[in-house]
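not sure who needs this but someone in the group chat was asking about Methyltransferase domain-containing protein from Salinibacillus xinjiangensis so here u go. i didnt clean anything up, its just raw.
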Amino acid sequence: MTYQSFAHYYDQLMDQAPYEQWLYFTQTIIKQYQSKTTSILDLGCGTGEISARLAKSGYDVTGVDLSSEMLSIANQKTQERNLSVTWVEQDIRTFNSSMKYDLAVSYCDVVNYITDPQDLKSMFTHIYQALQTDGLFMFDIHSENYIEFLTNQTFAEVRDEVSYIWFCDEGEEPLSVQHDLSFFVKNDRGSYDRFDEFHEQRTFPVSFYQETLQQIGFDILGTYSDFSTDSLDEQADRIFFVCKK
């Protein structure tokens, strides 16, 4: 799945996303486990909001995404903010680099877009290979509870410039959801153009992610929920994994 037309309106519709909480969580874990981190790989970076915040905090950041539209917006954004980020258009399931990174992150439920277990294992394997020895990997997922909540829900928002209606239907695989998204963008004539996109997400039990990561060679340093660095509540909306090579 890649964001296409939606990429141009993503930031407007995600203006309430908790980017500062992702940044704080990352910095807290770095201080706890890898204080000498300098290079960070942001997988599924989208329009670069997290990458930009990490770069502003002084890290050497590489943002990876499959969507050229998203990366174009991310690049423009960091240029306007006078920030330096390296952008790479590549599939995170098969990410390959000659560089080794101190830390890899993948936030905003990017990993839930990897719906096939073998693709998920491939992604984790390539990340493992891209890390320095003792490097860290942090990512989040929608919990089983949250995927079940989304199923058969409809969401909508009306704004002057862009509006959307979002149908969430039960997917074919267990713990999966299909997103049918239609959004309406005001044009120069004062009428609205319609764009449609289809996305699919899937989650797995926490134990499945842990076992897959350990099979590849990662040590699980911690599993947390909803930006807390203290404990795990599997009924929370968002689950975080912190791993070490």
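also The helical segments are 10-13, 19-33, 49-56, 68-80, 117-130, 144-150, 206-216. if thats useful
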